[in-house]
């Protein structure tokens, strides 16, 4: 089997694989191979193996079995699934930034071994909320966002005016997040051994 056919088989399988995995697990950018199966498969957490990249290329619904209810819970609040991102984009992204700040605060907190489990649970809960929101944004754009005809002279409904502005709003919000978080290359390196040594000294 040549390389092209091997990759084709991998991507074909990955399309079904994503539907069987936990949708709230955010894929990562990784070309590393999984040790299982003799190291012949990409990591199950990568975009290639999860099927997320292929669904994007084929213009398929990112999460066909999720966000199908009339309302969706994001950051502990119920929102109308089909309109929330248009009507409340500023509020949602402010809540998102607040969660990122809470996560950053947890990372900076010094603790002993007895609190590690509690911190991990809190951090994982925050992460899942953020991932759910990002998935919702992706699904909303695919399912509900309608491109307005700029040359049309028909009066628009107030919602349609907000909807037409959403792409620009999303770009501004994502740019603001980039400024808040910083580039990946600028993030500090976290060495688990340093954390362990600090706690061993306390013990």
From TrEMBL:
Coiled coil: none annotated. Residues 27-203 form the Protein MMS22-like N-terminal domain. Pfam families: MMS22L_N (PF14910). One of its GO terms (cellular component) is nuclear replication fork. GO terms for biological process: double-strand break repair via homologous recombination; replication fork processing. This is MMS22 like, DNA repair protein. It comes from Phyllostomus discolor. The lineage of its organism: Eukaryota, Metazoa, Chordata, Craniata, Vertebrata.
């Amino acid at each position: 089997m040549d390389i092209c056919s091997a990759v084709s088989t991998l991507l074909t399988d990955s399309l079904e694989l994503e539907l069987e995995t936990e949708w709230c697990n955010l894929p990562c950018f990784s070309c590393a191979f999984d040790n299982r199966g003799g190291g012949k498969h990409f990591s199950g957490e990568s975009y290639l193996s999860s099927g997320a990249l292929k669904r994007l290329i084929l213009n398929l619904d990112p999460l066909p079995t999720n966000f199908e209810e009339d309302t969706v819970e994001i950051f502990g609040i119920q929102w109308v699934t089909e309109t929330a991102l248009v009507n409340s984009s500023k509020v949602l992204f402010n809540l998102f930034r607040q969660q990122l700040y809470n996560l950053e605060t947890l990372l900076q907190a010094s603790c002993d071994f007895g609190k590690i489990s509690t911190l991990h649970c809190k951090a994982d809960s925050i992460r899942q909320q953020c991932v759910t929101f990002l998935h919702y944004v992706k699904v909303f754009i695919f399912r509900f966002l309608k491109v307005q005809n700029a040359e049309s002279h028909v009066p628009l409904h107030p919602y349609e005016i907000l909807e037409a502005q959403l792409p620009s709003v999303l770009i501004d919000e994502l740019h603001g997040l980039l400024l808040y978080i910083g580039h990946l290359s600028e993030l500090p390196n976290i060495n688990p051994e340093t954390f362990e040594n600090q706690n061993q000294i306390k013990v």
